[in-house]
Amino acid sequence: MRKIISSFLIAAIAFLSPNLKAQGYEIKIKIPQIKNQQLILGHYFTKQDMLIPDDTTMLNSNGVGVFTGKNKLTPGMYFVFLPNKYKFDILIGDNQKFS
Question: pTM above the 0.70 mark?
């Protein structure tokens, strides 16, 4: 009986472990014109009147950075704030691992 329960627990953990890894977000960004600079990922509060930062990343010498977090972001409109004070919008849905 113990072997059956142990086998079931091992199978359940193996089945659930990919789902546990799927939690959170990983947004890769590449802007070759901007190197070794910090970017901010944030969301809007009250119809773009207020910008709320959620995460930061540092671009490397190739202009590549990754925003990561353990918990998923709330789906909606987000912005990436650039060092030159410009920003661009992105929509984030259920799939939160993209580039």
Answer: yes
